[in-house]
Every structure is written in structure tokens, then in C-alpha cells.
Amino acid sequence: MQPVKADAALIIIDMQKGMSSPVLGRRNNPDAELNVRRLLDAWRHTQRPVIHIRHISRAPGSVFWPGQAGCEFQVALTPLELEHVVEKNVPDAFANTGLERWLRTRNIQQLIFCGVITNNSVESSVRSAGCLGFDATVVEDACYTFDQTDLTGRLWPAEDVHALSLANMAMDYAKVMDASQVLARLGQATHL
Q1: 123, 89, 129: which is closest to 9 by C-alpha?
Q2: Tens-place pLDDT, residues 139-152
Q3: CA distances from 38 to 42, 44, 69, 112, 177 (A)
Q4: Contact (Cβ atoms closer than 8 angstroms) between residue 59 and residue 65
Q5: Structural domains in the chain?
Q6: Positive or negative CA dihedral for 23, 27, 30, 32?
Q7: Are 158 and 26 in contact (CB under 8 A)?
Q8: What is the pLDDT of residues 132-184, one digit of tens each?
Q9: 16-28 pLDDT, tens per residue?
Q10: DSSP readout, the chain?
Q11: pLDDT score at 91
Q12: Which keywords accompany this UniProt record (predicted)?
């Protein structure tokens, strides 16, 4: 596997206070926030670009409706002043946000994704990144999702939804690694 480049961007999707709302249901991967924090600390330490994505809902009553505490970033993952923040209104972080242009003007090609919800905002953003030609990696243990009921009424455990979403992304759009694998590749970038 290739090293994590010196200009690789860490893209943290929707790590907002609203994700802890009980209305979202049972989730998988209880250590996801710790792994996101490990990645964030490493990116800050090595002075790589960090992009925080924030969902601002258009649906009244959403936990991400503007002006509510749910829109705020989780305290441990709050952006620093110089870190880029992108606000989105749909799951895909590239749709009508200027994210692609921001990356292209800086010649950033390698993107490392983490955050929530695996099968929603993460997957839609990663699919766009892959289609746009970016070198995308998803950090599987720094993402999570929730139990989901399909159109037939069957309840799928969050673990299964997460695994299938990762498989979808790995098929054509991105590499899938865990946080330790990504962090181990940071040191390999020094010879680039």
C-alpha cells in the first residue's frame, strides 16, 4: 500500500452533537470517535490539511436544523481556526459545496474519509470522490452507522449496514483500511 502523502486531506464528515440523539437509534462501532480523534491528532501533528464537514438540514425538526445544539461539532472534534469547514445540505459533501474546487486549487489528490453515517453521508461523499478521480480511502473503524429498516420492514443491524456500505465503497470508489493502518502509513511519507 502507498504511504499517506504529505498533502493528503483528512475529511471528517458530520461529527456533530446531533449524532448522539436517541432518535437515530442503536449504532455500531462505539470507538469510532476515539479513532477519528487519533487521526485528527496525527493530521494536526504532521500539519496535513483537515476538512470538517457539517450537515445543516433543510428539514424542520431535524437534529441538524440550523440554530440547534445538534448542528455543533462534538467538543473533542471541534475545528481549529485554520482548518477548513464545509457546510452541506444533502448527504454528499461534494454537492453544491465548493469542496472539489478547494481541493483542486491546492492540488490535493489523496483523501482520507471518516465520520458518519457510513451508508449515507460517508458513502455518498466517497462515491463522488471516486467518480471525480480522487484517491480515496475510508477508515472503517472511524465511521459508524445505525440500525436500519428496509422497505420490506426488515431490521438490519448497524454492523451489517456498515459492512455492506464499506463493501460498496471498496468495489469501485475507495480503499478501506482501519485507523492503525492509515496511521502506520503516515511515517512512510517522509521520503516523498
Answers
A1: 129
A2: 999 999 999 999 99
A3: 6, 10, 24, 13, 14
A4: yes
A5: 9-185 (3.40.50.850)
A6: negative
A7: yes
A8: 999 999 999 999 999 999 999 999 999 999 999 999 999 999 999 999 999 99
A9: 999 999 999 999 9
A10: -PPPPTTPEEEEE--BGGGG-GGG--BS-TTHHHHHHHHHHHHHHTT--EEEEEE--SSTT-TT-TTSGGGSBPGGGPPPTTSEEEEESSS-TTTTSSHHHHHHHTT--EEEEEEE-IIIIIHHHHHHHHHTT-EEEEEEEEEE-B-EE-TTSPEEPHHHHHHHHHHHHHHHT-EEE-HHHHHHHHGGGGG-
A11: 96
A12: Hydrolase
Cell reading at 60 = 424542520
Q: Which three cell numbers stand for residue 84?
A: 477548513
3's grid cell: 504511504
